[in-house]
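re: ur question from yesterday

yeah so i grabbed the chain u mentioned. its 67 aa long if i counted rite. heres the sequnce exactly as i have it in my notes:
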Amino acid sequence: MKALHHKHEILESIEALDQTQTEKVLEYIQGLLQSSKQDASHRKTKRDALKEIRQALKNSPRFSASF
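ran it thru and got these structure tokens back, copy pasting raw so excuse formatting
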């Protein structure tokens, strides 16, 4: 019930905005969505790189130190 109340409050405040304010809010939301996509892409790239490094280390011959 509380979530429904919050949704109604959000809708009421959005309806009270003028056109310029509405555009700013939409730009802000789109920016948030873009940054989260970029973060997800970065995490995937990092995960893939670490996987390749792990695989390379696993398959490389071990060097023995002879002192």
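noticed a couple things. The longest helix spans residues 19-59. also The CA atoms of residues 22 and 28 lie 10 Å apart.
anyway ttyl
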